[in-house]
Write a structure and sequence with these properties.
Layout: H1 5-15, E1 21-23, E2 27-35, E3 38-47, E4 51-55, E5 60-65, E6 70-75, E7 80-84, H2 86-99, H3 103-122, E8 124-134, E9 137-145, E10 150-157, E11 161-163, H4 164-180, H5 186-198, E12 204-213, E13 218-229, E14 245-246, H6 250-258
Parallel strand pairs: 1-11, 7-14
Antiparallel strand pairs: 2-3, 2-13, 3-4, 4-5, 5-6, 6-7, 8-9, 9-10, 10-12, 12-13
């Protein structure tokens, strides 16, 4: 489900960064990304004590207010944005529970259960034995095999300092979000199992790559840190660009439309 991708991204970040060195200053991490071997833009993570913002070359951005738990999803191409709150997840969960008597919904959930259980049980997380340097940071490589179709590699470092207040807030935010998603059934359970396995990775990922092999088509993506800044981040970074239009949360809208 595309609307949950951003949340899972931050959960993975939290799980994969369990032993970071910590500091009180803001952190900006800039990375180059590729898709199928071709440059796909620059990705930037802005991390402060109470906010996180990621920008991607695809024209999408995410802002998380770690104090309020509100996640803002921004589409730079359409110049729109929407918010997702813990209350939204709880409302979605309630609506899903209402639909569970629908035979089609039960069938869909059964299929999802099988897929989620298969992915969770087949996930393997282990060191590759490869060490290298990325942007001046020494890192160790880990292999994450999520299924027969998807594999990931992360090179993680313990030398990159992370704002201590932001780390604590991110842990709390991630735990709160996972709790809000507890009623999502098989997807939530699989997510918890995946998060548990990812805890064996200690450090900040400075290089990542993924391969999705669906048989008739393959897609590879990479992201590699090229610069790290420990300078103050302006408050304007946590604001939606002027002129952008707020739209309905597509997660709720799609579910409502499906019900008609």
């Amino acid at each position: 489900m595309r609307h949950l991708f951003s949340l899972s991204t931050f959960c993975v970040l939290a799980c994969a960064s369990a032993a970071l060195s910590k500091a009180a200053d803001d952190l900006t991490v800039i990375s180059n990304a590729t898709t199928n071997g071709k440059p796909s833009g620059t990705e930037t993570q802005y991390i402060s004590s109470d906010h996180i913002r990621t920008t991607q070359g695809s024209g999408t951005e995410i802002i998380i207010n770690l104090k309020t738990g509100v996640m803002t999803n921004i589409d730079d191409k359409k110049k729109t944005y929407y918010n997702m709150t813990k209350q939204d997840l709880e409302n979605f969960q309630a609506k899903m529970n209402e639909k569970m008597n629908d035979p089609k919904m039960k069938q869909a959930m059964a299929m999802m259960q099988g897929m989620s259980n298969s992915m969770a049980s087949s996930t393997e997380v282990k060191k590759t034995g490869v060490s290298r340097k990325i942007a001046g940071f020494a890192c160790e490589e880990w292999s994450i095999k999520m299924s027969a179709m998807m594999t990931m590699t992360e090179c993680v470092t313990n030398d990159l300092k992370y704002p201590v207040q932001s780390w604590a807030a991110l842990q709390e935010f991630s735990a709160s979000m996972r709790k809000s998603m507890s009623g999502f059934g098989p997807s939530a359970k699989a997510g918890e199992e995946f998060a548990e396995k990812m805890k064996s990775i200690h450090g900040f990922p400075v290089a990542t790559s993924s391969l999705v092999d669906a048989g008739i088509t393959k897609m590879t993506t990479t992201s590699e840190v090229i610069e790290v800044r420990h300078t103050a981040i302006p408050d304007s970074t946590w604001e939606v660009p002027a002129g952008f239009i707020k739209v309905d949360n597509p997660m709720m809208k799609a579910f409502q439309d499906h019900g008609h």
